[in-house]
Write a structure and sequence with these properties.
This protein is mainly α and about 300 residues long. It is built from 13 helices and 2 strands; from the N terminus they run ααααααααβααβααα.
Amino acid sequence: MKHNFKITAILVVMFLITQLIGLVVISGYQHEDNKLPFGMEPPEEVQQLDGVGFLVQIMIAFVFAIFLLFILTKLNAEKFLRLWFFVVTTLAIALTFNIVLVFSGLNVSPGYLSIIALVFALPLATFKIFKRDMLIHNLTELMIYPGIAAVFVPILGILGIIILLLVISLYDIWAVWKSKFMQNMAKYQINKLKFFTGFFVPYAGKKQRLKIKKIKEKYAKKGDKELEKQFKKAKIKVNLAILGGGDVIFPIITAGIFLKVMGLIPALIITLSATLGLLGLFTLARKGKFYPAMPFLTIAMYLGMVVNWLIF
């Protein structure tokens, strides 16, 4: 197992909760009266297609975004990247909050609801991007990916997502095992940008926890400054359990498309299959090694699709 049972459970549970929130948000925006705010609602003629025609455009946009991100990292454009992620994070959280406000039954026009959602989203995005708080970081992750997924579900169909999952999985294999791009990007985000686009859980091993305990027992009475000094001096190694944002959002989009086309139960089967695929990956993975999650999630979701077609 790549991480201990507790950390693995935390990551899998956060993944599952995000998937379920995503289905709630997507189902809310599937009602005719609930349009995506901030000008993100796709044209009606786009929503009536199966999405295959827009798959190439999505892939081109994805490649362009990766290329732009690569160039900006080489240019050390940290301020611009933080601003970019701040805007995306704010809008994504606001999209999720907006549908929550709709479900709350607040007697306010849609335009004002979106403004209220934006007001809620701004401080959360600020803390996430410009502050280093693990609780706020992971809580906002629960809201970001459902909002982003709600934008893509209306413009994709089942065939489109099948192809997209395959392409993303192949890219993930190349980026993790061949080029090491994913590892380098994760390090860049954590060390330079001071945030990470995905779930992020630092934890100490058994020996390190024992060392921390001894330092606390010895220096606790001397104050926080002395404790901090001793921790730095001890150079305690902290392990990182991470799950990239792409590994979270694509299962939400897939389940959302099945929700749109086939209904709630087929969507939940996709969610369950993706969760089991992630759990299988964490169980089989070895410590100290990096693995592309998307191939495992894609295979699991393909199996979920087969189950859906056999039953429904």
